[in-house]
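User: I'll paste a sequence; please echo it back and then give the predicted structure.

Assistant: Echoing your sequence first, then the prediction.
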Amino acid sequence: MRPHSHRASPVPVCGAAEGLADQAVLRRLSLLSGLLPTAVYGGYGKAYLRDRIRGYNAAARHASWFVLVDLNDDFECPPKLLQSWLPHPAPAMCLRVAVRKVEAWLLADGKAIAAFLGVPPSRAPQDPDSLANPKREMVDLARRSRRRRIRDDMVPRPTSGRVVGDNYTARIIEFVTTLWRPERAATRSPSLERCLRALCLLARTAHGSPCSPQPH
């Protein structure tokens, strides 16, 4: 996919996501789809979004909204999460689900993630949506990095008790904003491809001009 080519101004959109890295992904996907994030909420985890989703949906009666959540192990598939969280979305509400975590969408751009982490491209998963724990896969790849800074930043110290390194989030945001190509990643991640199509539809509906995703 590539950004739409029409001359219409970007459509303002409000957003919400679980954490800082997810918010960076939300902004990147919005801009790619012809949407301009004017305010991005959340950053306090999934339960925070769940408690506020109906309020966001009420606001979507008057403005475009994009809410991004991880599937994790909470539901068997995205449709079940969508039905549980928001059975009656407003026309301008785009609630999308990363399978099973947003890291799967990042790993789907195998060429870029291999270059960023300093690992062979063959290490990148071919079917990231099928991973039970994409975040753990990301850390395991970083553990194999030939770059010490990547290992130090993204891999937790053995005695820390943490699942990620101290600077994991900062590194993920760096990747999202510099090397990640969502249109390329969507060819390996069906859930990302569906998200991009939904965002293009949101933009098209708002300004009446076609959003034309094309193979990169």
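The mean pLDDT is 93. The longest helix spans residues 190-207.
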